[in-house]
From TrEMBL:
Pfam families hit by this protein: ADH_N, ADH_zinc_N
Name the record gives this protein: Alcohol dehydrogenase
Keywords on record: Metal-binding, Oxidoreductase, Zinc
Listed cofactors: Zn(2+)
UniProt KW Phosphoprotein keyword: no
Family, as annotated: Belongs to the zinc-containing alcohol dehydrogenase family.
Domain Enoyl reductase (ER): 8-343
Organism: Streptomyces katrae
An annotated Gene Ontology molecular function: zinc ion binding
Methyltransferase recorded as keyword: no
């Protein structure tokens, strides 16, 4: 089969690799029907995630069709159309029992495209299939469903829930890429008073307005002053970091009010300065996290019902074998306007059934 293989910082290729096979009774082999590229994949290619070894097949998000299952798999069978979660869960360790699947110590957590071969391929082996794939509603198209593999649960759990967004809050999202836009969309579920998006790119600020931001500001246009003015000098109740750069994180800590919350989502490849000399007295809560995906079933239901704007996130479509071109377009998002790129043939998309035929 073909797959996108990482060969070291700055080096990838779409090439022949061996087909995956069942290694454990809990495994499933899934034909990849739709896959997307994550900002984390770009961090890997840049060399920011040294745990990813050369030779690894990248990718951790996909929709596909089950073609084979191990003898212990009970919840899916060959022919089922499924969402492949970015997080795998053994279901037995302490953290899985607490629904903190991202911290799984039984061989799961973030493994696809990280410590085992991932989803940017024609086929993928998914460990712990009973807890790591989700059967899909027939009416939910693949290009929408695939966004529930990572960015929506990540934004919701690590941004909105960790940040404890509440009705009436002023929420600032620093970074209006896909993760930041999903944070804006899911924060709106809690009726904040005002949402503010910060980004360098005017195209992404425009997208943020489409995703519900009440105010937008360029990262070089004194966003801290805008937040101060809009909150009568108090600062934001919740600030969500969705970039992964030291200057973005440090900006977030300057915009939060006393007693407020900073929720870091971004993947950081360099140290950031934590100014405790300013923060210690402000009762500020800082959170970090890897997504657990405990919210995926709920988010899938909401997307199928049209309550989350997943389709609006997809700006580019490619065939699976155009992976290298898709990476180039995604890596130049400031020029191309790319938000989420979906690869895979439209022949695999679900077709909505008219109500009278259901």
């Amino acid at each position: 089969m073909k797959a996108l293989v990482f060969h070291g910082p700055g080096q990838t290729s779409w090439q022949d690799v061996p087909d995956p096979s069942i290694k454990d009774g809990a495994d499933a082999i899934v034909r990849v029907d739709a896959v997307t590229i994550c900002g984390t994949d770009l961090h890997i290619v840049k060399g920011d995630v040294p745990e990813v070894a050369p030779g690894r097949v990248l990718g951790h998000e996909a929709v596909g069709t089950v073609v084979e299952t191990g003898g212990d798999v009970r919840t899916v069978r060959p022919g089922d159309r499924v969402l492949i979660s970015c997080i795998s869960a053994c279901g037995r360790c302490r953290f899985c029992r607490e629904a903190r699947y991202g911290q799984c110590r039984g061989g799961g957590g973030w493994v696809l495209g990280h410590t085992i071969d991932g989803t940017q391929a024609e086929y993928v082996r998914v460990p712990f299939a009973d807890l790591s794939v989700y059967p899909l509603p027939s009416a939910l198209p693949s290009h929408e469903a695939v966004l529930l593999a990572d960015i929506f649960p990540t934004s919701y759990e690590v941004g909105v829930l960790n940040g404890q967004v509440r009705p009436g809050d002023t929420v600032v999202v620093v970074g209006a890429g896909p993760i930041g836009l999903a944070a804006l969309a899911t924060a709106s579920l809690y009726s904040p008073y005002r949402t503010i998006a910060v980004d360098l790119a005017t195209s992404r600020l425009a997208a943020a307005r489409d995703f519900g931001a009440d105010a937008t500001v360029g990262a070089r246009e004194e966003p801290e002053k805008l937040v101060e003015d809009l909150t009568d000098g108090l600062g934001a109740d919740v600030v969500i970091e969705a970039v992964g750069l030291p200057e973005a994180f440090e900006m977030c800590t300057r915009m939060v009010r006393p007693g407020g919350r900073v929720a870091n989502i971004g993947v950081h490849g360099k140290p950031a300065t934590l100014h405790l000399e300013d923060l210690w007295i402000k009762d500020v809560t800082l959170t970090t996290g890897l997504v657990d995906t405990h919210s995926t079933p709920m988010l899938l239901r909401m997307t199928a019902a049209g309550r989350l704007p997943a389709a609006a996130m997809v700006t580019h479509r490619f065939a699976l074998d155009e992976m290298e071109e898709a990476y180039d377009v995604f890596s130049r998002a400031d020029e191309t306007g790319a938000l989420k790129i979906v690869l895979g043939g439209p022949q695999h998309d679900a077709v909505a059934v008219p109500p009278q035929e259901q």
